[in-house]
User: What shape does this take?
Amino acid sequence: MIKKIIITLFILGLLSPFIVFGYFYIKFDYDVSALVDYNPSVTTRIYDKDGEKIANIFDTKHRYYAPFDEIPPRVVEALVAIEDTTFFEHPGINIDAIFRAALKVIKAGHAVEGASTITQQLVKNVLLTREKKLSRKIKEAIYAIKIEKLLTKEQILERYLNEIYYGHGYYGIKTAADGYFHKKLSELTLKEVAILVGLPKAPSSYAPTKNYEISMGRANRVINRMHVLGWIDDSAYEKAIAENPKVYDDTLTQNKAPFIVDEVARRMHAMGYKDFKTGGYEIYTSIDLKLQDAARESLKYAYDRFLTRVEKYKEKEEKDIKALQELDPEILLAKDINLSKVNGAIVSIEPSTGDVLAMVGSVDYTVSSYNRATQGKRQPGSAFKPFIYQVAINLGYSGATELVDIAKTYDYEKDGEEMKWQPKNYEKNYKGLIPLREALIHSRNLATINLVNDIGLPQLIRELKKFNIKHLPNDLSISLGTMSVSPLELAKYYTSFSNYGTQVQTHLISSIYKDEKKIYQKEDQREEISPASQAFIMTTILRDVVQRGTGRGARVRGIELAGKTGTTNSNVDGWFAGYSPTIETIVWFGNDDNTPMYRRETGGRIAAPAFSHFYRQVLKIYPQIKREFDIPEGVREVTIDGEKEYFSDISKPPKAEVHSDAAEELLF
Assistant: This one.
């Protein structure tokens, strides 16, 4: 009888784990949908026009997703070798391994060896907590068995390799390959593969950016295991053991152009992509990272020159402050300038396509992340004058047409009170009669106002609306550019000149992919504003602005540049808007609170140097860039009083003033 009882107890002892397991299996309902319908958050990547990564954007976990077809067989072999050799044979749990581990625990009196399969590790990471209790281990085993019935081995491996943490903030093996080695999975060496598959056991300890030698030792154990199993030969083993791969210690975001990233984020949200940070989008922008760096450097270059000038102004003014104040009691002295308020922005586009090549919204993003290139609305001042002059040219005026440059007093009413407006030229002198070309080259305010009167304000505004310019003032202040625009908006409007009369909508996002499928492609939007011949006449005038006018500070040897300075009342805003044959660039400087900069800080002084510095960098980066403007059909070059002038079928030459042997050719 006693013998039977002992045998019965022994059998029950052997069966008890299975009885407990069966109880848990039947008793509880296990939800495995999180793994069956696996849909993890995936990092969005932003690229420049050449496919160079600008940044990673993610919410809480930085993860690139790799479908099983993208995972090299060598990765699977290395993982299985070190973590779960019988992975392709067991049903989710390894009974032999469990018993071996149990015997070692009994012998040692504490846990010395785990018995978790790859499936169990996946379950623990996605479906369970990390608590060390028997009930959790039983649930883990049950989950693993259920998962193996619902998913293929390949699906389990895919989920594992994309879910597991690999240290340094990297989730998923594709993320780790890119982060640690700057490689695709298919480009990894055997040693690099071994490093990665060895990480999940203890990511903090084995991360190669923290403990390189320890990480190499763990990788060598992986390689040795593969060699013992006969999965690699002696040659591959020796080569892998000897290799010491280069490891990169990057930030997770790798943000190379923060203003671009912020603007892309704003546009993605506006387009309805609310899962921008978790949806795994691949966003290709029009940005050229080399030009982006050049733009940032150029803005800082001009700002530093400004600081140097102000210091010199201060030194000079301190010697004779009283004399200066006696000359002009309202003068703003350099000692009164709050330099921290002065900031700038630069945006550069390709006028033929509208693609934004570079965009910087402040002198230093770490100090101010406000993007003045897109969000700052400022008066363009004289940088707006080319639009008025283009209207005149489209109506038949030419560069040789004489304008009246004299002072006038204008009466107007404000809040029921009679007011007088007496505009002046910046130089505070008058030319009487001045050719249209010279009036714009030297930015003559009075000639411009009189041109507006000559055209007629109603007709001018009708014509200006064709440029799609918003919020045009319905009075003579339009002559001085008193509406508000952002640098990016002004860049769009200026394509009407730089793109030979055709205005092009600007683009930052070129295309968007999700799961390797294109879900967005930019649309080409363009509108002809002026005939090419008339727009080119404007370009020749703006080219002279740079060569011998208010924009001389923007000159760059070896390339034709056209552009216009802009300075608003009391030197509140300083602009330079211009272009080469293939690239257009807008620069702005000013105080965020709309207070004046120093009185000498005009657009030509503060903004033009950033423009010229940028194009000097352009020539270094792209020495083969187009350097001369094309002359469209219908344009005639004529010499008048020793000066070159350009005419067309619309803008005809003043016959009596033409002094050229080719005069008879101009009768067209």
